[in-house]
Amino acid sequence: MTKLARELLFPLIAVIAAFIVGGILILIVGDNPIDTYRLLLGAALSWPDGIGYTLFQATPLIFTGLAVLVGFRCGLFNIGAEGQLYIAAFATAWVGITLAGWSSWLLIPLCFAAAILSGAFWAAIPGVLKARFGSHEVINTIMLNFIAVALVSYFTQYHYKAPGDPIMETVPIGAGAHIPRLGKFIHGFPERIPLNVAFLLALLCCLLVYLFLWRTKWGYEIRATGSNPSAAEYGGISIRKQIVVAMAVSGGLAGMVAINEVMGYRYRYYDGFSDNYGFTGIAVALLGRNHPVGVIFAALLFAMLQHGGIYVDGFSEHVTKDIVQVLQGIIILFVAAESFFKWLAIRIRPLRRMSATK
Amino acid sequence: MREQGKTVIIITHKLSEVLAISDEVTVMRDGKLVGRVQTKDTNAAELARMMVGREVLLRVEKPEPHVGDTALEVRNLSVITATGGKRVDDVSFQVRAGEIVGIAGVEGNGQTELIEALAGLVDPAHITGQILAEGKNLNSLGARVRRELGIAHIPEDRHRRGLLLDFSLAENSILGVHYRPPIAAYAGDVFLDENAISKRATEIIEGFDVRPRNAALPARALSGGNQQKLIIGREYHVNPKVLLVSQPTRGVDIGAIEFIHRQLVALRDQGCAILLVSAELEEVTSLSDRLLIIHEGRIAGEVDPKVATLEEIGLLMTRGH
After folding, report:
1. What is the nearest CA distance from A240 to chain B, expressed in angstroms?
2. For the residues of B234-284, what is the DSSP string, one character each?
3. Is pTM, for the whole model, over 0.90?
């Protein structure tokens, strides 16, 4: 229980501190911080639209947060979730278009497999490069992001666009590949809100990632590699294998963004759909302290900010929705400054510490 | 500095060090002051007793070895670095069941590479010669398979190799056996069995007196001696046929040193073949049944530790002949 409190303390400090600093900035710009924050958070908490859209926007962030988390736990920095989810979204749409006439019973699992496996494949490339040649995954995942975006744009533009369509998007996927929106099951929750079963899938993935990392031998090997590769090797664990496995799992999770986007929202591949989900996932994982439960809360917070930002844009006098970016940035700065807070805490409570060590 | 009128406080658990340079000794145990003596009025045995709280055997007492068949054999082993140099150079020796073979040498003369090569932690491409256990060539086998063949390893650097410092004692206690029953169970041995883990952790923590007795603590929270006892307990738990052990008592308090030495002799007497590397000349001469001296990666000679003088060994260590 105290451990939990300690885990919660620093993210909480980071968020509160970010809101204070953000409030000062809002004052300087010339608006009332309280009003702005009321707009920002109030919009996200209204029923049904605010909550619906916040959960909808949290869905991809949970997937990418989990993806980055799995990488981190293996000592890998997967900056390539963005590219992985683009590849996965296109692959999912491709399966949905190519097998458009198939029934849901076959098509939905096939599209799921396409999303997960294509994302895993794209992430496994830098994994293999690191395991085999030692080339750094940060460089390779960044470069593969550019390649992924260019590749799917090319195929969309020249091969899968509806003739005459001015928008960079593919033709629609078959109806058999649609997954239901939650409005279908919840009374008083309109189906126009794109929140869909992918959100439930994201929550399920949090549980699965937890079980995988902390309750299976594979997770133990990944965490051991991340914690101390020399000791892992000494314990008979193949570090190279863990690197490839962790990257593939990470990419598979990032790829599941496609389920939300393609199968539950637009029912087609829409070029440039990702609102930096892959990169925000890094922030989500950090704020969530690389734990699946933390990722849920961090994703919800970031989704709230993103959704509320639209209202700030519309209703406040000077502040624009860029305040959201500012807040996110400050939160990450404070999370990264954790060691500074720890130092401060030691200075403030030297007596308590002495009695604790007996 | 003392001659300049400065006050010097030295904090150490090395008895020879404190006896050599101090004027007055204060002994602490468990955060409490135990006593204060003049250095010229005391000796190692008395200080050890004050530190541990009971009589300590500074000399290792061991019965005659009952030597069995060869358990580990090394033939013309060389370990080649990336730049082409030889860290271990054409080394051959055998370790038989029930004996402790010591390797003495100035640190950095190939001991680390030799042990790591035997444990399967060196890329086989960098190894020439043969490593044999029970007649089986180990060269191409990885660390996991060697562990399965009964080769345990207490590494010289417990922080770098031996422990996952951020992991709990329980999680550290299963490193190396985490993937197989009884630790891995259910659904084709995929899931970790919490009960089996805590049983194993308890056996190690209680059997080897690891303190504090809390399997949920991170390994980082333990003192060096307790970390070392955890590693030794873990490696003993598999009933090894061969034990590779490097610097078993480095940075370990004197009570734990005595305990570790007794455990090594006990394991030998159960028929384990032990290869011991230590920079402590006293340790390696008193524990070993046979003593090899390594110099610049080569075996400079073999001596009988019961009769060899420290001068003789020292010359072999530094001159190589």
Report:
1. 13
2. HHHTT--SEEEEESTTTT--HHHHHHHHHHHHHHHHTT-EEEEE-S-HHHH
3. no
